[in-house]
Each structure stands twice: as structure tokens, then as C-alpha cells.
Amino acid sequence: MFKYILKRIIVSVLILLGVSLILYTLLRCMPTDFIEQRVLQLKASGQEVSDEFIQKMYETYGLNGSIISGYFTWLLNIFRLDFGKSFINQRDVLKEIFDPNRMGTSFFVAAIATVFEFLIAIPLGVTAATHQYSLRDYIVTVLVLIGISLPSFFFGQMLKDIFANKLHWFPVSGMKDAGIDYANGFEALLDYLRHMFLPILTVVILSIGARMRVTRTNMLEVLNSDYIRTARAKGLKESSVIYKHAFRNTMIPLVTSLAGLIPSLFSGAMITETVFDLTGIGNYALNAMTQADIPVIMTYNMFLAFLSVAGVLLADLMYAVVDPRVKLA
Q1: DSSP state of 212
Q2: Cβ–Cβ < 8 Å for 278, 19
């Protein structure tokens, strides 16, 4: 086990180095950069910008050299635990990304949405598989198509228009009502939950489709196995056959989703947070990307890449727990 984990860690480090090189190269090859945007803003405000000033800005932000030299400069700083400062506000990148309010908002939305996603998607997938071609199977199929097909910006805006603008059941956007002093912490919590309801609902509905489809497909495959027919031939109850014998093997593909689950808890739902004006990490990262803030984008994406390789390793280790036939050695 230790040898396997050590080998995977070494491979993961090589993967992270490759990801960082590709990511930095793509960022430096963008059609526009942070300096060009700043120059356009200065010119729009009526200020004259000389070529010497522009060259000085490129040197100040470390964008005057080649892509390779810039990458190795960034990599050397990372080994020194220096992640740089944001181009936008000159604040430390780590403090910006791991701000408790910003990261906490995204984690709260993602964690609650993930819990409801599993509680809804897996039972629906199982019941659709056990009642194949029935009315409930067709209903689940329609829900899967809705969850997969609808873009988050459209569905989030639709929910906001119906439940916030027309029915006035929930706030339109933001995380708290402006200018209101709460009598106690309970009222503040209720107001916070009211603001979080529509974003969480958007993420849940758009996420359950793919997980329902995976659960249904794998459940159908397991139900057609020989050992399931043997269990039924022995006279076992149908509920015991499904939930004790079939469902455990259905969990094996679901374990794979752990690889993407961990980074999704911390990455933030970029479009959803933007639609509902949440101060989460996803909204912040999207703003940094639109302004070509390289230190923020590199640190944010490398953090997600690290969580991804850690999630893949955890998923592989969980295989041995779910399926005793899997031997990591």
C-alpha cells in the first residue's frame, strides 16, 4: 500500500508540473494581457501613456521576458512558497484565494448542493433502473435531460426571475439584505439561508442529471448479472437483492466521482455565483480571468489541479474498500 501511494505521489507531482506549464503558456498566449487592459483604461480616462511607461509596467509585472523564462521564474517562486501578488489590487494571492468569507461561501453552496445531489440522484437512478421503461423511468430520463442540457446562467436567471422578481419569495441577489440590523444571530442565519436557497437549488438541479444517469446505467448492468439471478432464485426478497447485493456493486463507478467531487467543493460555481452576485471563490476567479490576473489564475487553477490528483488517488484507494476484489498491490 505504501509503495503504491508513494508511486502515485511521484506521478502526481509530474502531472502538476505539466499542468502548470500548459496553463502558464496558455495564459501568456491570451489575445490581451493585464498591461494592455490597464493601458486602455488609462487612455480612456484621457491620460497619455508613453512606450517607456508601458515597458516599465511589463518589467514591473514580470511579463517582459519569454514564456519559458517567465514560467521558470514563477516555478522558482513557488518552490520558495512565494505565490506572488494579485495584479489587480496588489494583495497576497494566498490571502485573496483562501479568504474565509470567499472560500466559505463557495464551500457552503457546494457542500449542501452535493449532499442533496446524492440524496436525490442515487435513489432516483435506482428506482428508474428497477422500473425500466415505466412512467417513473421516463420521468427520471426527462429530469436527466433537463439537468444535462440547461446552461447554468439560463436556469439560474430563470429561477431568479420566477421566485425573486415575480413571486418575491427569495432575494434577487447578494448574501444579505442591505441596511438591516438583525435582532439576533438566528435572524441573520435565516436571511443568509434565504439568499443561498436559489443558488443551491440551481446547482442541485443541474448536477443530479449526470449522477442519476450513471446510477441508472450501472444498476441496470448489475441487475442483469448472473449472481443477481442466483440471489433471486434462492428466494431472497427483492429489496434485499437490490439494496444488499446489487447496490454495492453499483457504488463502484460512483466512487470514481470522488475524483471530481473534492475540487468542486472548493472551486465555486463561477456562473451561478455571478448570476446571484455571491462573493465566492468562483466569482472572484472569473473576475481574475477576465482581467488576465496571472498570479491569481495560476494559484487558483494549481490548487484545483492538486485537489483533482488527490481526489483521483482517494478514489483509487476507495476501490479497495468498496470492492474487496481490488488489490492495490
Answers
A1: H
A2: no
Nearest-angstrom CA–CA distance, 96 and 76: 21
DSSP state of 243: I
Nearest CA-CA partner of 299 in 97, 102, 16, 107: 97
The pLDDT value given to residue 18: 93
pLDDT, tens digit, for every residue of 165-201? 888 888 888 777 766 766 677 877 888 888 889 999 9
Residue 244 has pLDDT above 80, yes or no: no
Residue 30 near residue 298 (C-beta atoms within 8 A): no
DSSP string for 101-152: HHHHHHHHHHHHHHHHHHHHHHHHHHHHHHTTTSHHHHHHHHHHHHHHHS-H
Give the CB-side neighbour count of residue 47, counting CA atoms within 13 A.
Answer: 10
Dist CA 77 CA 47 (whole Å):
34
Residue ranges of domains in the chain: 2-97, 100-155+208-322
pLDDT digits (tens, 9 = 90+) for 17-74: 999 999 999 988 888 788 888 888 888 887 877 888 888 888 888 888 888 988 999 9
195 closest CA partner among 175, 215, 181: 175
CATH 1.10.3720.10 is right for the domain spanning 100-155+208-322: yes
- Amino acid, res. 30: M
Per-residue pLDDT tens for 142-162? 878 877 888 888 888 998 899
Q: List the one residue out of 242, 224, 252, 244 whose CA is nearest residue 324.
A: 252
- Measuring CA to CA, which residue among 111, 128, 309, 318 is closest to residue 213? 128
Q: Is the pLDDT of residue 329 over 60?
A: no
Question: How many angstroms separate the CA atoms of 305 and 18, rounded?
Answer: 11
CA separation for the pair 318, 255 (Å, rounded): 7
Query: Which letter does DSSP use for residue 180 in this model?
Result: -
Q: What is the pTM of this model?
A: 0.81
Q: Provide the residue type at 14 as one letter.
A: L
What's the CA gap between 87 and 60, in Å, rounded? 10
